[in-house]
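Give me structure tokens for this 198-residue protein.
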Amino acid sequence: MKLSSPCLPSTAPALKRHARPRHTADPYSQPPHRRSGGRPDAQCTRRISRIARGAVTDLALIDTLELDALILPGGYGAAKNLSDYAFKGAECSLNPDVAHAIRSFHTAGKPIGFICIAPALAAQVLGAEHPPLTIGNDPSTAEDLEKMGARHVDCPVWNAIVWNEGKVVSTPAYMLGPSIAEVAKGIDRLVEELARLL
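Here you go.
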């Protein structure tokens, strides 16, 4: 199984059980000053930092890759860089390459995993299909997901919510995470469910 995602340390054991070599798709693989012709500054340097294992591929080229599944980890990167959810809530927009990647994997019937706050990205792109998603049990974030069309399902940190028909899996991770051990259980569960959906 080839996965596209910055792989978190907690997913490594599950990936070793299920994975072939994988690529990490990164919408910021070219520093912003190279894309815009400007000079680098502190914000540019911060913006391109990432956690990645394996080859990094520009997200715009994702259609050219032979990938079996897509995992979007969450955190500030998803809420502030891949989208503007942190600033606009349910009225957010996504980086066009991220939205395209989600749509293309979904249309192709390939499994997609959303961790932590990343289900907000799924809600924005796939909301018209009313996918069941989770961010744990935060009422205001759950309300945002529902405003975008998703059906929010409360879920403990160690578990994952699976939309079998749409091949979408989500887990709350650090939206609830009392400890890295508990978060790892939910992320491992997400990877196992994605492998089952292949």
